[in-house]
Amino acid sequence: MTSQRIAIPGHIVAIGGAEDKTSDLEILKQVFALAPRGSNDVAVIATASSIPDQILPDYKAVFTRLGAGHVHALDIQSRKQAADPDNVRLIEHSGVIFFTGGDQLRLTNLLGGSATLNAVRARLLAGAVVAGTSAGAAAMPGTMIYDGNATDALRKGAVNMTSGFGLVDGLVIDSHFLERGRFTRLMEVGASNPEHLGVGLGEDAAVIIHPSRILEAIGPGHVILIDSRELASSNISELSMGGTVAIEHMVIHALISGHGFDIEARRYLTPDKLKACLAETT
Length: 282
Fold this sequence. Notes:
Layout: E1 12-15, H1 26-33, E2 42-45, H2 52-66, E3 71-74, H3 79-82, H4 85-92, E4 96-99, H5 104-111, H6 115-125, E5 129-133, H7 135-138, E6 143-148, E7 159-163, E8 171-174, H8 183-192, E9 197-201, E10 206-209, E11 214-218, E12 223-227, E13 233-234, E14 247-248, E15 251-255, E16 260-262, E17 267-269, H9 271-280
Parallel strand pairs: 1-5, 2-3, 2-4, 4-5, 8-9
Antiparallel strand pairs: 1-10, 6-7, 9-12, 10-11, 11-16, 12-15, 13-14, 16-17
């Protein structure tokens, strides 16, 4: 067992992509509801996207519909813009910071070490909610997948990883998980580092990572967890690059909305148990 990690005051919401932005807004409604009282501005950061002009208006419309005071559309496409005090100021006044989808390596390349990312971390520590969809979700942990063959990733070195934003420890998040058949990507991650919990987010599915490090599944889609902590054996350390990986005793859970998971205890939480755990920590 690992030591207990320190809780962060704010909430993190990781979304698998293709979330509903036109009808019930089930996931985005819950993102906005987590904003601290009296802090209903939203900053939408479109750095990952190659089409920010197309997606920023959609998110502005969604969060305006949900009751945001102001929606700040931040099309940060350079490290100079990531250092801009005006962008930092808008983040500092927002109760929700939302990262769009696109390319997660663009996120870490353009925002890593920047005043913008430092401001996001400070807002999370102050109790704001930080949410992201697709690439924006994948970049949140300290370790990030940025590439890897979905159909045949159970080969040593088949999954490319680098440092993410470090907003949450002990997880590796993959998006569009079921739709793009990415099971073997998180299995390879689990074999190489069993301490990490793999979180596979289906489309229109998400997890709320509560300050107590309890995961809560939301949305109509599935969340798949791949838990390798009790891994019995694997040959990965003995292989040459590209060799086929063998794994003994990897545990998989499928969560739906209202179900949860205790990250530290590695314990599945049915709806009643989830409610009880959250009640104990609020």
